[in-house]
Specification:
Blueprint (H helix, E strand, L loop, with lengths): L11 E6 L5 E8 L4 E2 L6 E2 L4 E8 L5 E6 L1 H8 L4 E7 L5 H7 L10
Antiparallel strand pairs: 1-2, 1-7, 2-5, 3-4, 5-6
The protein binds zinc ion.
Amino acid sequence: MSGLAGLPSKRWSLRGSDEEGNEVWLIRSFGQKLYRCPGCHGDIPIGTEHTVVQYVLRLGGTEHHHWHRRCAEELLVPELRDVKRVPTSESSRSKLERRGRRPSGRRPR
Ligand SMILES: [Zn+2]
């Protein structure tokens, strides 16, 4: 995990995978709504920087959750495998949704 502190950022997102083989992308975001963090069940106030965790599922499809930065860093990232930083241009919503339309194994790497 060294070198990944402070990420995701404006330039870098993170990509890893969970134990079920789903891709897990962590993307810096600012909320336009009030969200509830699945890590601590606390509120994420409107307009504050936080982390969107987007899953690209192994069997196709996507889903996402909004996390406090620190909760994602402390609770979620340590559970992931092969966490790497990737340019934010790779983690746009439209690109991830396109990835989710193909079963894994046929995805471009
Ligand atoms: Zn939290």
